[in-house]
Amino acid sequence: MTTKTIPSSPFAGQQPGTSGLRKKVRVFQQPNYSENFIQSIFDVIDDKAGTTLVIGGDGRFHNRIVIQQAIRMAAANGFGRVLVGRGGILSTPAASHMIRKRGAIGGLILSASHNPGGPDEDFGIKYNISNGGPAPEKITEAIYARTQTIERWLTVEAGDVDLDTLGGIEVGTMPVEVIDPVADYADLMETLFDFDAIRSHVAGGFTMAFDAMNAVTGPYATEIFERRLGFAPGTVRNGIPLEDFGHHHPDPNLVHARALYELMMGPEAPDFGAASDGDGDRNLIIGRGRFVTPSDSLAMLAAGAHLAKGYATGLKGVARSMPTSAAVDRVAAALGIPCFETPTGWKFFGNLLEAGKATICGEESCGTGSDHIREKDGLWAVLLWLNILAVRKLSVDALARAHWAQFGRNYYARHDYEGIERARADALIAELEAAIPALAGRRIGSLLITGADNFTYADPVDGSISRRQGIRILFEGGSRVVLRLSGTGTQGATLRVYLERYEPAGGELDCETPAMLGELIAAAETLVRISYHTGRSAPDVVT
Ligand code: G1P
Ligand code: ZN
């Protein structure tokens, strides 16, 4: 074993983050930088002897380098063995499952999610604990505290592991197993969904386009959709993981998955379209001629989940992040199950899933998942959609219309203002916070404000309180405007404005979203003075 000294911590003075470390590749390439962070993780894990550590990533540039570093360091730090995905590949959901299934103490997932990859783009390292979920704040804070004081890191002197050949090898005295990254995960999906029903639907002519965006889900999607479910070869598009994602943002939204959207709206559209992000935890769902918002998708999945064998006994509860539309609340009410409203971020679902209070969770930012693992799961959402459609034998459009006819429709959009000067963004929030007490009862055009607050969450499992999680302005009839600053942006501040208009069953269910949201957008401008504060006349991204 070799001890390397760190002259001065490259992390000194940096703010702790909560979802691992996400920086430019060039930052990770600095001497001691990745090593410092990985050693800090290892230093806060107690009782490593004899335990299994899972390592894998989304295949982006620099993935293989950090995997080799991490394996040598794991050997020096006394882990019992390392499981690493072939080619260094493990999607975030597959890693979560691998940790749980193999009884690992935890795992290192190397990804910057939907951010672009390449020598000048982003990289990231996150640590998941033994339940397969992201390390809770207590642990991430301990890791960051350690990065500030650490003076050495441990490694063994050993060559690189051949990541492309399945099988076992020793590094130092520690066994390393290169495993198939797909098989266990695909098997898990077969336990949850009725593959026979989907196969016969496909045999009956049902078609799909799945855009893997040259990111991690390609091998998973090819195995599950084309090999196990019988979809035609070519169903999976951009299925080879590339280090730079083919120069694209592997972000499955209407901007970056434009090609899929255009296909689905055009004359050549297959029955079903879907995409996933860099590390495989997000999903986008588009039927032929019908885009489904992630908030609606959550509601429609909750309403149909009992049609899949993994959920046949019903859901214990559902959960959504606060800015996600309230469409799922109405499904929960009809099913007579609880609906939890949490702050933005998957980690807030962890306690609810662990305690058996919620079975299905989702966020407006294309994240949906269930208690089968402790991360959101892009392919899981696609498969649940396929299972529901195979049983109900409806098109996506017909299913959406039937859903709205029963529950009403939550017209929804998110407007992002990116790269705003931090001080200006803070000023906007401060001005709005000050205005909150006077908002209830105010009328803007035909809209009546019934209440406003800065969202506070009391975790029903551990009682912890999270304050100031986003400003909610509530209108008569169930419409809302929500504003918050992004916690994941890398440059300046990003303002997110979430707009939601509820039309009850029997109302105007077949209109265009921008038209339906026009009055709310104008009201938001009047109340918040967005263009004055941001200096922008329009959002940078509308999703
Ligand atoms: C964004 C999304 C949020 C998601 C997070 C991590 O966070 O809005 O729903 O959990 O990425 O994928 P934000 O940048 O809004 O803080
Ligand atoms: Zn992701």
Uncertain stretches: none
Structural class: alpha/beta
Mean pLDDT score, rounded?
95
CATH class of the largest domain: Alpha Beta
CATH architecture of the largest domain: 3-Layer(aba) Sandwich
Please outline the major beta sheet: 7 strands, mixed
Distance between the termini: 51 Å
Gross geometry: globular
The number of E-state strands comes to 27
By CATH, the topology of the largest domain is Alpha-D-Glucose-1,6-Bisphosphate, Chain A, domain 3
Small-molecule components bound: 1-O-phosphono-alpha-D-glucopyranose, zinc ion
In DSSP terms (H or I, runs of 4 or more residues), the helix count works out at: 17
What is the strand arrangement across the widest sheet?
Answer: 2-6-5-3-4-9-8
- CATH homologous superfamily placement of the largest domain: Alpha-D-Glucose-1,6-Bisphosphate, subunit A, domain 3
What proportion of the residues form beta strands (DSSP E)? 25-35%
Q: Oligomeric status of the shown chains?
A: single chain
Helix content: 25-40%
Radius of gyration: 23 Å
Number of domains: 3
